[in-house]
Amino acid sequence: MRSNNYATISSRAWYGDEEIRLDFPDGWEIQMLSPRDAPKLSKTEIQAAFDQPIGTPRIAELAKRKRSAAIIVDDLSRPTPASEVVPFVLRELIQAGVPKSEIRFVVGGGSHRGLTDDEIAKKIGADAAAEYEVVNHDFMAGDLRALGNLDSGLPIYINPVVADADFKICLGGIYPHRSVGFGGGAKLILPGVAGYASIFYFHEYHPKRGRGIIERSGDEPDLRDAAEAAAEVLGLDVVVNIVTNSRREVGGVFVGDFVKAHRVGSQFALETYATPISDQIREETDVLLLNCYPLDWDPVQTGKSLWARAYFDNAYTVIVNPATEGVCYHGLSDQIDYPRFAKRSAAQKPMPLPAPKIGSREQALVWSDLFPVDAFYKRHPNDILFREWDTLIQMLARKMPRHAKVTVFPCTSTQILVDGD
Hints:
Radius of gyration: 22 Å
CATH class of the largest domain: Alpha Beta
CATH superfamily of the largest domain: LarA, N-terminal domain
CATH topology of the largest domain: Rossmann fold
Number of strands: 20
Helix content: 25-40%
Strand order of the largest sheet: 3-19-15-16-17-18
Distance between the termini: 33 Å
Shape: globular
Structural class: alpha/beta
Number of helices: 14
Strand content: 15-25%
């Protein structure tokens, strides 16, 4: 199906970051609801962030006389192009005199699976991956370091490479998060490199801050506070936080104190991801198209695009997530380590794709190349999985008026709605 009406969106983070064209029937009206965005930073602008840290001396000063360093990075479930910033971090540590052989990277994926060698190279860059030791955090490992408890009772168990390092850096992205307001900062410590008991307690026994909220409301410590309290106990020295633009480029870098730099970075993120919307668009939209990019590597992250549905009462929802990882695993909810999960999955007979049948507006219509069928219907039992775009749109067209109005969120997982005309 080809038409004069189409939308062009980015897709497949980490696997080409390509532009794809989505065709709609003739007569449909397409409205692209884009974020305010930010330009790509130059190397000179990135260096300036390291020259003028927020709330701390520069890394080269902080790390003097340190014998070892751990650089914690987020995994591919986060779209952070860490490889663009890693050389600046390494330059600071080498300048400080930290032995190159004692600088290690730790992939702080919390209860996610570890990255492969190829995926590690994507995250930190091929040169760094070849020259430095890189370890994946294992939240079920038996050698985690016990650092006591927070006042709330949360037990602190931390990856040994991180806990034993003289100097600790978190290098990750700042993205809207429904539980901690914005990711980044100390969240790469808890849950990033924490143990099962810590992660479980963290998720179950603390109030949530809410998506896109920078500061806590009320007096009771919430999830962001818990992460920062654990980082304080550990002795996190500095963060290097990245805000990406809609093309998954480095749009902002915030270096320094793990609270102060994170708050400044979160404010920039709020402005960058802000997406103005009018009441008229909300009321007149017939089809809401939510593109999961740039969080479209991991099938589990599909849920981070569903927030927009609450703003549209009368629209059918279409979700685009290629789920290029093709593995739907989250250790905390699956309650099993990844090797056993992979073995069990390999032994299962793949579930055939059920014949799609569109019913009510409450169903999400998900177009995905690689989202496993059985995992999809386990996590989204009331929704519908499609492999072919044309099939989805042709079936949806039967329920639409001739001049259906489509509102497209090109990077829903990071966008934040604000009032606008």
